[in-house]
Design goal:
It is a single chain. The protein is mainly α and 83 residues long. The protein folds into 2 domains: 49 residues, no CATH class; 30 residues, no CATH class. Helix content is 46%, strand content 0%. It is built from 5 helices and no strands. The longest helix has 11 residues.
């Protein structure tokens, strides 16, 4: 079971309409995201090999770089200045 499937499974365990529940009419998460389980598993296992920089939203990357006292955010196409 992938992390996404575990999250999906957990959401199905809540009563319909309860916060965190998943609409019963929706298909399983891997199907909704059009992900093939074997390819997803490979990507998750080899994630660090395929990513050479930071991963996250622009906001989270900028904040992380500020905490590290970087002058620019590596990996952003604009090389956003942190000043």
């Amino acid at each position: 079971m992938t992390g996404a499937e575990l999250l999906d499974w957990t959401g199905w365990r809540f009563s319909y309409g309860e916060r965190g529940s998943i609409d019963e009419s929706l298909p399983p998460i891997m199907e909704r995201l059009k992900l093939e389980p074997d390819k997803w598993r490979y990507t998750a296992i080899h994630f660090e090999r395929s990513i050479t920089g930071f991963v996250g939203t622009v906001r989270s990357m900028v904040e992380f770089c500020r905490r590290l006292d970087y002058q620019r955010t590596p990996g952003l196409s604009t090389g956003k200045l942190l000043n």
